[in-house]
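Chain A, query sequence.
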Amino acid sequence: MKIDKTTSLRMRGIGILLICLHNLLHLDSGVLECEFEFTQERVGALFTGLREGLGACVEACFSFWGWYGVSVFLFLSGYGLVCKYELGKHPLRPWGYLRNHYKKLLLLLVPAYLFFVLNYLPKGIISPSDIIGQLTLTLNLYDARAITPGVYWYFGVTMQLYIVYLLFHYKRSDRLLLILTALSIVIGVYFAYAEHLSEIHYQLRHNFPLWLSVFTLGIWTARHGSTRFIRLIDSHWVASLLVLLSLWLLSSVWTPLWVLSPLFVVAVILLLVRHCHFRSLTWIGSVSAGVFVCHPILRMFALKGFDMGMNLLFVCVVYIALSLLAGWLYMRLIERIR
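Chain A, predicted structure.
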C-alpha cells in the first residue's frame, strides 16, 4: 500500500483538523482525553457528553478523540524516513541528518514560539531555562509540564524519534523493529494498568518510548506495504474500514487495548483518504505544519469567544478558518526565511 504525496497530504489534513479542534475544545469541555493517562472517569464523561445536545456531543468527540491526530504525523514521519533514506537516493550521513532535521524543526518552531516568550516570560509563566530546553528540543526529557504552550511537546518527541531511527532502524532488521515495538507496547500496557497517574507515566507519554509503536508502524508500512495481507485489506476497504473503526473506538475506551488505539486510527484514516477523495484536505495538509504552530495563538482568542457566550460551532468554524489562513501565511514566511 504505497502512500503517495496526495494521500500523505490528505492524512495530514485530517490529522491537523483533529489536533486543532481537540486543543481548543478540551479546554472548554467537561470531557478530557485519554492521551497521557487513561482513566475510566474520563471514559464515563465521554459517554455522558455523547448523550447531550449537538454542541456538547461535538465538543465531547473532539475533546476525547481529537488527540489521535498526533499519531497520523508520527506514522507519516516513520514512513517518510524510510522512503527518503532507504528506498530513495538520499544518503544518510549521521551528523548531517541530525543537523538538518533539527534545523527544520527549529525554523518551524521559533517564529511562533517568540510570541509566547514575549507574552509569558515577563509574567513568569516561562523561565529562561524553559526557553533553552524548548529551543534545544530537550525540555520533554526532564520537565514536560513546563512546555508552554503544551502542544509544542511534539517537537521534542519528533526529534527523539529521528534519533531512534538513526540508531536502531536505519537499514536494520525487522526483528529489531518488532522487538522495540513490542517493548513499547508492553511498557504502555503496564503503566496503563499499574501506574497510569504516576509522574513517570506522564513523562514517558511525552517522550518517544510510548509513541514508538505508531512510528515503527510507519517504518514497517513503507518497507512491507505491498504484502498480500495489506493488499487484501486495501481491496476490501469498506469491510476493513468498519472493522478497524470498531477496533479503534473499542480500544480508545478499554484499558487492555488502549496503547494499540493509535495504530487502529492511523489505519482508518489511511483507508479513508485512499478511497474517499476529499480534495480540500490536500491543501489543508500542505499548510498543516504552519497551522500546528499557529493554532495555539488563535486558540487564546477562541477561548475568549466561549467566555463571551458565543455559539460553540460558530467559534470552531471561525477558529479553524483563521488557523488555516495563519498556517498558510506562516509557511510563506518560513519559505522566505529559508
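The mean pLDDT is 95. The two ends are 33 Å apart (CA to CA).
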